[in-house]
Amino acid sequence: MVAFRHLGSSGLKISEITYGNWLTHGSQVENDAALACVRAALDAGITTFDTADTYANTKAEEVLGDALAGQRRESLEIFTKVYFPTGPKGPNDTGLSRKHILEAIDGSLTRLRTDYVDLYQAHRYDHATPLTETMQAFADVVRAGKALYIGVSEWTAEQLRAGHALAQELGIQLISNQPQYSAIWRVIEPEVVPTSRELGISQIVWSPVAQGILTGKYAPGAAPPAGSRATDTKGGASMISRFLGDDELLGRVQDLRPIADELGLTMAQLALAWVLQNDNVAAAIIGASRPEQVTENVAASGVSIPAELLERIDAVLGDSVVSDPRLTDEVSPRERLA
């Protein structure tokens, strides 16, 4: 069963394997399959579910709400996000303005079929809206009982520090950041993680298996396997393409197999266990198109990787690891997307 960790310095505990539906529900996976995956997650002890209003242009929230219907609400932690365009994608259907946040939370709650979310997250930093306006709107959402805690996604160390200070002034808790993080994508380690530890903020990491690269299914010089994310035209292929052309990286990933075998893990389990060795990581988000994938991934919970094997992983991956902290800032658009 899944282990639990505190989220930031709060009293909230979440399952360290969290189920997310970014590239699946409402797009890649039919509703029946999505329901089966959520049931497999619940059966495995996962209680934390992450989504966003922009996923499949709001359909992912609807599917998750349907899948969780009938479950005891108090036994779940439901997370969603606001920022990216939704609906008809008008000028105010995006960003972190007061108007968009207060309208977006009501839409999310309706689709998720709940009165509140446990964590409401800024999906990116909004350079077009004053941070004071954004944080005041989040504070009002919390005071209205529509969210219990506030989080962000892909914020830099400087942005986290400024947002945390305003949250404290407003009497609300900013307790999490949701960045991309894996054994080959470590841009949060130099600056974001040390700052987060200082502020009492945890990481809820997405793409811990690097969109499937760390499963080892993609061999250098070979065509992607049929039915894999790299062959999916609904979003998966575009996300994974930046890694597929790097045969050196793909070869080094293959060299991780003996380490996985030594630990009695699959490659996917090794990738998940690796991110969970970082004590600033509260959870690794997994996605699934089949229930068996959920069952496999959950087995990474509670795994301890000895220091000498962590060093071997670093040696194998070598300079294929991306760790430039400046890359975090690049993922937040300078202008609103509409």
From TrEMBL:
It comes from the Bacteria. The keyword Kinase does not apply. Keywords: NADP, Oxidoreductase. CDD domains: Aldo_ket_red_shaker-like. The keyword Lipid metabolism does not apply. Signal peptide: none annotated. Residues 16-316 form the NADP-dependent oxidoreductase domain. One of its GO terms (molecular function) is oxidoreductase activity. InterPro entries: K_chnl_volt-dep_bsu_KCNAB-rel, NAD(P)_OxRdtase_dom_sf, NADP_OxRdtase_dom. Pfam families: Aldo_ket_red. Belongs to the shaker potassium channel beta subunit family. This is Aldo/keto reductase.
